[in-house]
Amino acid sequence: METMKVAIPMANGLLTTHFGHCASFALLDVDMKKKTITGKQEVVPPPHEPGLLPKWLGEQGVQLIIAGGMGSRAKELFGQRGITVVTGASCDSPEALIRDYLAGTLKIGENGCDH
Q1: What is the rounded CA–CA span in Å between residue 16 and residue 9?
Q2: I need a surface site. Which of 2, 39, 54, 78 has the fewest CB within 10 A?
C-alpha cells in the first residue's frame, strides 16, 4: 500500500481525546513510501450515534485512526471494517502525529476511554 488515509479526531486544531464527540476529523493522505503527507482536509462528522462513525469513516476511505481514546466496542467495529486503530496518542497537531507515526516515534499512553 503506497497511499493511506488517516483520520484524527480534532478540537481546536489538535487531537481530542473524546473520539465519539469530536468537533471534526482531520483526514490526511499519506504516501507511505515517501513518508510524507500529500493531502489534508478537515471534515465535520454526522451527529453522534453509536456505530455510525465506523461506517462513515469507512466511506471516507480511512484505513488508520490515531486517537487519544476509544471504547472497546468502537474499536471492534472499526476492526470489522479493516480500519486500524491506534489509541493513547497525546493532544498534538495532526501533522506532528503523522510525522511521529511514520518515524516510528509516536508516543502511546493509556487509552483515554473506558467504555
Answers
A1: 6
A2: 2
Sorted by sequence, the CB contacts under 8 Å of residue 11 that are 6+ apart come out as 18, 22, 23, 24
50-71 pLDDT, tens digit each: 789 999 999 999 999 999 989 8
Work out how many domains the chain is built from and give that number.
1
Burial 61-82 (b: 16+ CB within 10 A, else e): ebbbbbbbbbbeebbebbeeee
Q: Is 108 domain-assigned?
A: no
Instruction: Name the pTM for this structure.
Output: 0.92
The half-sphere exposure of 22 on its side-chain side, counting CA atoms within 13 A, is: 27
